[in-house]
Amino acid sequence: MSNKSHESDVAFIRALAELLNENDLTELSVKREYGQDDTLNVRVSRRGEVVTTHVSAPAPQAVAPAPAAAPAAVSHSAPAEDPASHPGAVTSPMVGTVYMQAEPGAPAFVSVGTQVAEGDTLLIIEAMKTMNHIPAPRGGTVKRILIEDGAAVEYGSPLMIIE
């Protein structure tokens, strides 16, 4: 019975890798509990070829193919520079969905070249059905917008560059 539940782990990990790609996420971490002392911890990351799996159960052979699924997701995204390390990077304070305008059809809050003052709304992140206005942490000019309207973001993801 325990083996049967672990057969789905490979498909589960492949689905996580696809989710990472489809939503342009940089890292995804999941803990799956099957019962007492029987868990699966998976972390898939794009920052390098980091894939961590930990199983505290007697069926590690079912998880062995897991690392092969994630590097495929990692291999085709090797950015030359990390926008999050830029000194003018504005990063996401939460996990959610990005909206670049107040409502569909309305003009975007900002675009490349827009002058912003500290506290101006840059975009909205919807998290748990709550619309959170993300303010500019400093004044300056929007140099790059790193996300698309409707995209999923995670905590710490670079959203835009303000110089």
Give a written overview of the molecule:
With 163 residues, the chain is an alpha+beta fold. It folds into two domains: 2-75, no CATH class; 83-162, OB fold (Dihydrolipoamide Acetyltransferase, E2P) (Beta Barrel). The chain contains three helices and eleven strands, in the order ααβββαββββββββ. It has helices at 2-6, 9-22, 66-75, and strands at 27-35, 38-45, 51-55, 89-91, 96-99, 115-116, 121-127, 130-135, 140-145, 152-153, 158-162. Strands 4-11-9-6 form a four-stranded antiparallel sheet, with no helix packed on it. A four-stranded antiparallel sheet has the order 8-7-5-10, with no helix packed on it. Residues 61-80 have a biased composition (Low complexity). This protein is a component of the acetyl coenzyme A carboxylase complex; first, biotin carboxylase catalyzes the carboxylation of the carrier protein and then the transcarboxylase transfers the carboxyl group to form malonyl-CoA. Keywords: Biotin, Fatty acid biosynthesis, Fatty acid metabolism, Lipid biosynthesis, Lipid metabolism. InterPro entries: AcCoA_biotinCC, Biotin_BS, Biotin_Carboxyl_Carrier/Decarb, Biotin_lipoyl, Single_hybrid_motif.
